[in-house]
Amino acid sequence: MYNLTAAGGTANTISGNRLFVYEVVGFHQNSETSQNSYQLRNSGKTLITVPYSRMNQEMRRITQRGGKIVNISPVGDGSAMPSSQAASPAPAKAKAKSAVPVNTYRPKTPFIGKCLSNGELVREGGIGTCRHLIFDLSGGDLRYFEGQSIGIIPEGLDKNGKPHKLRLYSIASTRHGDHVDDKTVSLCVRQLEYKDPETGETVYGVCSTYLCNLQPGADIKITGPVGKEMLLPEDPNANIIMLATGTGIAPFRAFLWRMFKDNERQKNPDYQFKGLAWLVFGVATTPNVLYKEELEELQHRYPDNFRLTYAISREQQNPEGGRMYIQHRVAEHADTLWELIQKENTHTYICGLKGMEGGIDEAMTAAAGRSGVDWSDYQRQMKRAGRWHVETY
Q1: Which residue of the set 130, 173, 351, 378 is catalytic?
Q2: In the annotation, is 393 catalytic?
Q3: What is the pTM of this model?
């Protein structure tokens, strides 16, 4: 669901300070939204929060974009103000999902944050550079959940002389931020580097290089948040399997910090994780294990609730004598993973390089087959049940 928020424009009256939610159907893609990397659906409902003073203006804008208002509800009031063609209230489950913040800031009107810190994550002897960045969100309304992403618009112009388009990055902090004050958001960014196949010259990614070189105090253009595929279930008893390569660790850091960090547990008395979290993390070398000390501290403190497995390709060997990749670790533990996956409260997440998916499916096909189950069919059932989550590139 595309969730728009209309901001500003309060009147000097009690009514002017009130907010209303328009439930709209029939929005179509326009020049503004077509610049996004995600698409509006031609069907489905859109929720728009509007101050009283802008209700008429927003009605006209909705009509111009082909939308139809089917319900108007005051924020904070259980009653509804139906329009002439009001629909029945959405089911409770749908309303809960729509509460996930999406597209608070868009490319034409990004939030201007500030870089608070930019620290190296790759230790001495590792390959490349990967940075942990913290951005200040004070003064804005950018709220997010674990598993979402934000867009970054790098400074400068592209080869055609136009402003750079946004790039999406998975958020690496909990909804409360690394400082647990609801004022920051963090990213885990590896500098993209590759050889041009024609010239042999080293090419560096535009946005990743911009971020890796960003200085504390610098302004940063942020859009979003976006994404509902990788959200962490609210059930504190759920089992969470996380399969990551490289910077695919970002959403899982957010998950694990929410589950186990002391200040987060204090901040979230209604969410005290009691299930099993299992992270299988693939990297090239030991110095490239991002957040290594913190991950291992959590494993030491919560041995009954957090299991940590590495696949270090350039240092470990698989059973055939080749490099150890994440799919080999999955194959090694396939029967245990399969037993866990069959539990109805288990969610599996895959984040990182797309190439690992085939090997994971191969390993799980063998494990499920030993139980007489077709893995492809079972995987489709999990997707329909919202228990299989993938974000690869």
Answers
A1: 351
A2: yes
A3: 0.75
